[in-house]
């Protein structure tokens, strides 16, 4: 299982058309107005303005009368094309938004590429509200459920791969961080839907800088039914804590995978 969880090597288009003003009929008389609108790019502002020349009629010599001239309003069209998602700037709203996007997605397995991008956008906004030194924040301790990973097969390794999911149904993925430096990871699953099992690891946490931590894990322990045994060797992972509060914790692996943890209990 080469991933950040168990191995060091794997740690609207919105179109808005706004017509400003009214398309008024041309004024009576010999003057007419034909607006010409053109849109050839994702953002276009087109307008046409024709000003009729005033007409003069001489009723008496040297006595000129100026007729009243009516000018139609300019007509403008705005077109905005963007794939960006409207994102709130309040941390509480951002937390609610990211949780709504990742809940009931099998850890991100069922999301489309565009939906993964939306999760990343919200995570980037939340990163702006991260405390200066999250590795020293006591909020990192506790029991956390892994509710999302941008690389869904990363937590759980082979058990979470496309082939592995045919036989192993993931029940929960939990990370427990205890002061001062203890980390325990556990993936619970069922085999063929009736035989329960789990993979667990224990590790030691080491602070690398203000945001990055390193965890060195012992060899994984596998339990299936009454059978229990260890396999593999030690592994290490590096993780950047990009946001943490009372509800969620965001992390990014050394290879760029985004993780969303939700506090349990």
From TrEMBL:
Endpoints of the signal sequence: 1-17
Pfam families found in the cross-reference section: PAP_fibrillin (PF04755)
Annotated keywords: Plastid, Signal, Transit peptide
Protein name: Plastid-lipid-associated protein 8
Limits of the Plastid lipid-associated protein/fibrillin conserved domain: 96-220, 234-261
Source species: Hibiscus syriacus
Keyword Metal-binding part of the UniProt annotation: no
Protein family (similarity comment): Belongs to the PAP/fibrillin family.
Subcellular location: Plastid
Annotated Gene Ontology cellular component terms: plastid
